[in-house]
Amino acid sequence: MNDNQFATLGLKESIVKAISDLGFTKPSQIQEQSIPAALEGLDLIGQAQTGTGKTAAYTLPIITRMSDASGIKALILAPTRELAVQVNDEIQRLAKYEELETLAVYGGDSIDRQMRALRKGTVDIVVGTPGRMLDLIKRKCLHLESVEFLVLDEADEMLNMGFIDDIEEILSHTPAERQTLLFSATMPAPIAKLAKKYMKPDAKIISVKKSSMTVSKIEQSYFMINNKHRLEALCRLLDLDDPKSAIIFCRTKIGVDELVQELQSKSYMVEGMHGDMTQTHRQSTLNKFKKGTLSLLIATDVAARGIDVEGVTHVFNYDLPQDVESYVHRIGRTGRADKSGIAYSLVTPKDLSMLKQIQNVTKSSITQRPVPTAEAIHNKKFKDMVAKVEEAINAGELTKFIPSAIELAEANDPISIIAALMKIKFENESVFDYSSNNLDAPKKDDVRLFFSVGKRDGLTPKILINYIKDMTRVNTSVIGQIDLMENFSFVTVNETVSNQILDKCPGGKINSKRVNVEVANKRKR
């Protein structure tokens, strides 16, 4: 019997299997409402905030309903190259048991490679930015006469970036009988007008109420790491804070099993919990955790949804989740009953865009902190030992130990005795065998940023530099190469100021054109 709730929505069995492989068993609100409507063939307007699972809400019905005809059958428009790549990757994961070929098309990547892929005639789904799609249409490489599904993802962002004319031009090349799915966080008048003009009169409107994603009582921090140091970074945090009750989140079931094995081999008292374990095993582990006989629990998002345990002091994101909603659910395991809690995330440079999205949606501050040094951990352990000794002295009840203490003191220096006892206790505790005092930080590289303004907006390098300087007050010496394109631009900046530019520069205007800024994909070499 399939206990995956996606199986009740009318999706193909092979797709439900792919969803289960990813660790998802319960659809989000937008998925639960959108998938059945889309499977009926209705045009759909879905309004929901970022991070609620919109991609799967339109991808799953498309994969289920797509015909076996030749040619491009689904066209998905996204405002940025980063989102296009993300959507394309997610489709490939969800369609792992299907014989589908997908292609992401966007500026900054080789248009010749994209043209060659399209000319083969084997591509089923194209995901891309409006500008590059229009370019490929004009070069007679992107043929849309067989399109069955058209998706506008983050439609309000495409409006803000000035793509509305490009979108209408692309729409004019698609069949009128196509199914159109429009998703947007907000519904400004131009988007509503576009929907009315290009969608069928019986289009279904689904609006998911903006959920409260407040995490105000939780102290959130992240630690920049090299991926090869992920395990040691976690151990350093565990050894420094010594949490009494903590949940460690991994993205996959295999990840849970591997981390449990690694930590148990280092004498940490830890067990795992995920969907492949029997109900009896999961319940036994949860009971230990609730009673406090188990201090560290490693779990997947799905396994942890039913955990409601008071007194969880820490949540560790060993891997960042794939959406904001999961992040909020994760860290919500701590800070309950009006108490404070601590949430730590291990982050590599490639996770920074997801981290920024989490901060934007939750409106919270996630502070970067350095991974603890071995010296700091040792000093904390020594300090804790001293505090426990003083507590025992103040509590009394030492009579039966005094004869042995006198015997030791007569034969040895008292300072040496204390140091030896501390050494014995220290070596018996679960402390990682640190090979160095510090972990190597990820190499600081320049960051290439995408700006949604270009030559046709009257942009020059001087205007762009002055805009960045006025919005952020950064020194112009941190601004490197500027590449001006017709509709957009790339700016290479020092990594130390990239987050400041990403925070301050979007939303302003250059020559009346609203500016959006994203991290660009690294150049192909």
UniProtKB/TrEMBL annotation:
Limits of the DEAD-box RNA helicase Q domain: 4-32
Keywords assigned by UniProt, alphabetized: ATP-binding, Helicase, Hydrolase, Nucleotide-binding
Domain of life: Bacteria
Helicase C-terminal domain boundaries: 217-377
Protein family per UniProt: Belongs to the DEAD box helicase family.
Segments forming domain Helicase ATP-binding: 35-205
Protein name, UniProt field: DEAD-box ATP-dependent RNA helicase CshA
Pfam families hit by this protein: DbpA, DEAD, Helicase_C
Membrane-crossing residue ranges in chain numbering: none
PANTHER family: DEAD-BOX ATP-DEPENDENT RNA HELICASE 47, MITOCHONDRIAL, DEAD-BOX ATP-DEPENDENT RNA HELICASE CSHA
GO molecular function, one term: helicase activity
CDD domains named in the record: DEADc, RRM_DbpA, SF2_C_DEAD
SUPFAM superfamilies: P-loop containing nucleoside triphosphate hydrolases
Motif window: Q motif: 4-32
InterPro entries in alphabetical order: DbpA/CsdA_RNA-bd_dom, DEAD/DEAH_box_helicase_dom, DEAD/DEAH_RhlB, DEAD_box_RNA_helicases, Helicase_ATP-bd, Helicase_C-like, Nucleotide-bd_a/b_plait_sf, P-loop_NTPase
